Amino acid sequence: MTATETWTPVCTLVELEVERGAAALVHGQAVAIFRTHDDTVYALGNHDPFSRASVIARGIVGTRGDVPFVASPMHKNAFDLRTGRCLDDEGTSVPSYEVRVVEGVVLVGPRRTP
Amino acid sequence: MTHLRQTLVVAGHGMVGHRFVQAAVERGLTERFDIVVVGQEPRPAYDRVALTSFFSAASADELSLLPEGRYDDPRVRLTLGTTVEAVDRDARTVTLDSGETLGYDVLVLATGAGPFVPPVPGHDLDGCFVYRTIEDLEAIRDAAATAKAGAVIGGGLLGLEAANALVSLGLETHVVEMAPRLMPVQLDEAGGGTLVRHIEKLGVEVHCGAATQRVVDVDGRVAGLELAHRTVDAEIVVFSAGIRPRDQLARACGLPVAERGGVLVDEQCRTEDPHVFAIGECAAPGGRMYGLVAPGYSMAEVVVDTLLGGEGSFTGADMSTKLKLLGVDVASFGDAFATTPGSLELIFADAVAGVYKKLVVSVDQDGNASRLLGGILVGDASAYGTLRPLVSSGITLPANPEELILPASRGGAAPVGMPDDAVVCSCNNITKAAVCGAVDGSADRPGCADVACIKSCTRAGSTCGSCVPVLKNLLDERLAAAGRLVRTGICEHFDLSRQELFDVVAVHGYRTFDDLVTAHGRGRGCDVCKPAVASILASQLNGHVLDESTVALQDTNDAYLANIQRNGTYSVVPRVPGGEITPDRLIVIGEVARDFALYTKITGGQRIDLLGARLEQLPAIWRRLVDAGFESGHAYGKSLRTVKSCVGSTWCRYGVQDSVRLAIDLENRYRGLRSPHKIKAGVSGCARECAEARGKDFGVIATEKGWNLYVGGNGGANPAHAQLLATDLDTETLVRYVDRFLMYYIRTADRLQRTSTWIGALDGGLDRVRAVVVDDELGLGAELEADMARHVDTYFDEWRATLEDPEKLSRFVSFVNAPGTPDPTIAFTTERGQIQPVLEGEDGGPTLIAGASIPVGAR
Ligand code: SRM
Ligand SMILES: Cc1cc2nc3c(=O)[nH]c(=O)nc-3n(C[C@H](O)[C@H](O)[C@H](O)COP(=O)(O)OP(=O)(O)OC[C@H]3O[C@@H](n4cnc5c(N)ncnc54)[C@H](O)[C@@H]3O)c2cc1C
Ligand code: SF4
Ligand code: FES
């Protein structure tokens, strides 16, 4: 996926529940979009590498120290919303994507390089 | 010779005889010995210490120490209902009343003691009883059915226990004591006086300094007691004037006995004959007999140890006692009468509150109290657990020892360090070091994190329970020292425990997580505190779980009102209250499963699980179910699951009550109730217990007269049998008790604590629950019932409500930007004619477009 400049509109900001996620289909990939309490929007891959199911968007959102995170609904593994890094297991992560909100519309951009 | 197996005969299967066999099996003595136990009573050993609870037990079996009726070791033979009549020490045989003769290599006498009945005229009339065996209590209960008043001769420990029983049988009760005060062996005059005032308040008439002249005889039956100065009317007389060791077997075969009775034995509990030992209340080590069970247990261990070649010895025992008599705390320990030369007494007395506390201390050269020697506590014995080990350990007292007995509000109850070898549980002789060892754990066993675990690992706290508060303190201290302190805060966002959060929410009336975390926490919460707060808010407000203010708090299953499965699909488990279902409804479930191609399975909770529903299919499935009169049902969530029932009196030839009706009513009453952990229940139509009610958080078993209520059971990884809370209840009272029980649990339990562990952790355990739920001692009953009434009144079907709310429905889509597109990563195969999930990387599973996850390093 080299088309680094493609931005896909997925929904409006108000459609996203605060501190919950929603799944979106971006270039055939399931992406989990989150809106935190301060209205920051994050996007991670929806696939949970531990349970191998596409469920990250359905986890609980919160903070560990200063780190915003989502706990996978399957076995509660925590992922950093900013980077996709797993907070319980150094070596594992999920992809994270650029996101922007333009005039109330959430746009998902290219995948960040880790 | 040594290669031959030897025979060991135990005479008497009481508490101590049983402990002996237990220890013999555990410690491998049966590798060498075949053991034959001969017991006179018709049933295996039972908990005589708890004898009085026979009156509240469902059956005598509840007291049993060996409910299976046999040992788990084929080399032990148990012969009950049989008496050892004689011992032939030369031939090394015993003769039984069955005519059988048994040879022995070792004989252990464990024949206990019997009640002493003073030879007053009329002592053998109809209506005279003693208080020692289950048969005695059965006879007393039967006689009480037609009696108005009863009198107990003897105001000692056991006499008051018997008086307690007469009161609970509804009799006008008299206690007659020859000494000038009650419990003369344990209490001084002031302590005894305080106890008398307590007991008289309960309506018991106490006659101290009164000798019984004779039992009044009317037509061969008891009609009263003639005392020196008056006569009391009573149709029942219970003799409880002390016990005498049952040492006749030893006397008859020429073994020496102590002056005041008891088979004379040495520190190994061996008699003059090296083949004969004596343990328990029939024995008199060093000439002294011990009327408590703990010393007997020590003797049993010593004999097993000796036979294994060990060096154990019995050199005396702690005669401390603590008990609750007619609801009054009484404790006496160590040198309670200050007989040690130069000792000093510190006394705290509050006549209004009915509290009397005395410490006996030794004094050093400077005139300061240095060591605790003993004490007496009446009315409030909460300090007993801390004080008693101070006596046995002999450590130096703090500067102001009186602090130890002042009421907590005046600075008392300071925690005190004790040495490792201090015995903290005297019933089972468990030291502080052993308790700490259990908390620390070892290579092959993880450390304990709660008192229940300490109980099962060490036996500490499992007999009279008076040491439990100390166990809890030691546990906390030890965990803190090891950095394993269970911080009471539930997670990094709150320093409050679940119970404290519950109270804070109730007091301040918070309705949102935001208000709560702003006022009492920090950060934005996490997967631990958010669902806990959601549950607390739901218990108090009962809003919809998907309301805007709470939706972000819900655990996955609550957030989508169904159970997530390993491939991200959901299961739906329609509620089938009590397991009763009509054929038409059964067909509807079948049709839904067929039309949505769901995997179908009967659950362990008497309902039908439909698995494999995609998130976006859930509303359509609920629609079909709701239209047919179902609700989707909680198989998820910390809430009521099912109330299991048996078929009951409607059909079953044994049933005595309609268990199905009650199960349905209970399930409908408590459905949707949010709680610290899931709640399960069961109702059986008779004692055969086909609904496994005693495996549930609350279980109901029908009796001829109504319902017995059991609480605190569960299956799962650590199964627990529910314990009897109350008997023969009518349906209305039953429901009231269950209301109170559940709300008390919801208010005070920790997060993810099932009822059994919650009860185990409560100070006072099941008695505490009974005090709150049945006796309403805290006066909380009405409030708890009102809480439940609110739940019942505000309950609604949350699936139906979701269907009616487009806002809530909008979350049930596969993708926000492609609501109609099924998740391409969900795939199924077929097995035994039904779907089955396959995951990425499994045979036939979906392939992900490269790089959806990037595991770095080996996992
Ligand atoms: C479906 C069912 C198995 C079955 O096919 O029979 C089942 C399935 C699950 N059980 Fe269970 N349990 C089921 C009956 C039981 C029973 C038997 C019973 O209820 O009579 C027990 C033992 C009794 C008990 O709980 O005391 C049982 C003890 C557990 C436990 C251990 C609880 C404990 O205190 O140790 C868990 C784990 C937990 O809750 O933390 C558990 C957890 C689960 C979960 C919720 C695990 C999960 O989070 O995914 C399973 C999901 C259910 C689902 O539909 O997705 N399940 N589970 C049964 C549903 C019954 C129902 O109609 O509601
Ligand atoms: C109401 C009550 C309350 C009590 N409360 C407490 C308390 O709070 N704390 C405490 O420490 N202790 C208490 N005790 C005392 C405690 O029960 C005894 O210390 C304990 O039971 C002694 O155990 P044992 O095995 O020596 O005797 P037992 O339990 O009496 O067992 C002896 C057994 O031997 C049998 N037997 C006797 N002779 C023969 C024979 N010839 N052949 C075969 N079998 C024979 C008897 O039938 C009996 O079953 C209480 C006792 C009673 C009655
Ligand atoms: S518990 Fe009793 S009433 Fe119920 S089915 Fe079993 S035998 Fe019948
Ligand atoms: S002191 Fe009785 S159980 Fe521990």
From TrEMBL, chain A:
The keyword Iron-sulfur is assigned to this record: yes
Presence of keyword Oxidoreductase: yes
UniProt-listed CDD domains: Rieske_NirD
Gene3D superfamilies: Rieske [2Fe-2S] iron-sulphur domain (2.102.10.10)
InterPro entries assigned: NirD (IPR017881), Rieske-like_NirD (IPR012748), Rieske_2Fe-2S (IPR017941), Rieske_2Fe-2S_sf (IPR036922)
Alphabetized UniProt keyword annotations: 2Fe-2S, Iron, Iron-sulfur, Metal-binding, Nitrate assimilation, Oxidoreductase
Rieske domain segment(s): 8-108
The protein's name in its UniProt record: Nitrite reductase small subunit NirD
From TrEMBL, chain B:
Start and end residues of each FAD/NAD(P)-binding domain: 8-286
Alphabetical list of Pfam families matching this protein: NIR_SIR, NIR_SIR_ferr, Pyr_redox_2, Rubredoxin_C
Name recorded for this polypeptide: assimilatory sulfite reductase (ferredoxin)
Domain Nitrite/Sulfite reductase ferredoxin-like: from-to ranges: 565-626
UniProt catalytic activity: hydrogen sulfide + 6 oxidized [2Fe-2S]-[ferredoxin] + 3 H2O = sulfite + 6 reduced [2Fe-2S]-[ferredoxin] + 7 H(+)
InterPro entries cross-referenced by the UniProt entry: BFD-like_2Fe2S-bd_dom_sf, FAD/NAD-bd_sf, FAD/NAD-binding_dom, FAD/NAD-linked_Rdtase_dimer_sf, NasD-like, NiRdtase/SiRdtase_haem-b_fer, Nit/Sulf_reduc_fer-like_dom_sf, Nitri_red_NirB
Species in which this protein is naturally found: Nocardioides jiangsuensis
Keywords: 2Fe-2S, 4Fe-4S, FAD, Flavoprotein, Heme, Iron, Iron-sulfur, Metal-binding, Nitrate assimilation, Oxidoreductase, Thioether bond
Pathway stated in the Swiss-Prot or TrEMBL entry: Nitrogen metabolism; nitrate reduction (assimilation)
Annotated ranges, domain NADH-rubredoxin oxidoreductase C-terminal: 320-394
